[in-house]
Amino acid sequence: MSRTIEHFRVLHEIPELGFEEHQTSAYIAEKLEAAGYQVTRHVNGTTGIVAELDSGEPGPVLALRADMDALGHIIDGQHVARHTCGHDGHSSVVLTTAQEVIQQGLVKKGRLKFLFQPAEELGTGALALVDAGVLDDVDMLLGFHLRPVEECPMGKAVPAMYYSASSTIEAVFTGKAAHAARPHLGVNALDAAAHAVQAVNGIHLSPSLTFSVKATRFLSDAGVTNSIPAEARVCWDLRSADNEGMAELKAQVERAIAHSAQAFGATVATTILKEMPAAVIDDDATALVSEAIREVLGDEGLTEPKTTPGSEDFFHYLVQRPAIKGGFWGLGANLKPGLHHPDMHFDRSALDIGVDVFKACVRRVLGA
């Protein structure tokens, strides 16, 4: 059994939600310290970890990032944490890369940093590390994600994954309770919320833009069936292929929500629960990753760059620090039936491919 799969087996059995990755973080930090890295735990008061290796010679600063958190699911009526997005695999790959880089003496110049990030699923883990200043000296940052089999099968890798921007907007409509026999004495928050759902569905941006918006949660209950509810709570999921389109989409959604509430005499408060920017990927980073993939998998293993409607908080790093050359690639692993599915599984032997690709990147940037 490879070292990478050994790490995976440990991490897979201790899934932890965002900012609660205490066992995961401790395991990774201990392995990094044993390997000889200078390790900073509890970055910015979180479970985040930064490990650094200084060659002692002038050169660029390269950073590799992995996310650590699991997802929350309701399975058989129980709330459970489960690794259904492959972050345990990501951490295993980057941890093994760290161990083998230092054992094989691959860093000849500059500095190498490893970021083990909490709370990717919450959309705030990357921002916590940015706020801690861990990227202030970084020249290039690389990350990756396991891909569903439909996007990239085993034995292939994607040099650049162009993720979409996403936002989650929650609106709380407040009306006035009344007996259902006397509706004129109240303000039905449920009616206002239902109207808002339809109004948002009617939003049309330019046909040249790739976007989607849909209601994903609707909660309203007066406690009895013959009373007008005074409150309704709705969440919308917004997606756009670019950040400019997301700005326009958010503005139109918020306007539709506000006008719907006003039309029914209700008030409404909106909150952005989660937000992730669209991909910002550097051409030099993509060229580097492409060369590394060719080295490991041959020309036939390199696919074209791909786009996805999914979102990834990795791109907060590059929006907040635009001087950094950022790259984000995808690894084929025959992942089925899909990311975030309770029964997600993949070919674990792909993880060693991920290690080899990252090591090839390190050699090209920090080797002699």
From TrEMBL:
Q: How is the cofactor bound?
A: The Mn(2+) ion enhances activity.
GO BP: any one term: folic acid catabolic process
**Keywords for the protein's UniProt record, in alphabetical order:** Hydrolase, Manganese, Metal-binding
Record's GO cellular component terms: cytoplasm
Q: Which cofactor does it need?
A: Mn(2+)
Q: Which residues form the Peptidase M20 dimerisation domain?
A: 169-259
Q: Which residues cross the membrane?
A: none
Pfam families, per the entry: M20_dimer, Peptidase_M20
Q: Which GO terms describe its molecular function?
A: dipeptidase activity; metal ion binding; para-aminobenzoyl-glutamate hydrolase activity
Indicate which residues the UniProt annotation says bind Mn(2+). Answer: 85, 87, 121, 145, 340
Q: Which SUPFAM superfamilies match?
A: Bacterial exopeptidase dimerisation domain (SSF55031), Zn-dependent exopeptidases (SSF53187)
Instruction: Give the signal peptide, or none.
Output: none
Protein name, please? Peptidase M20
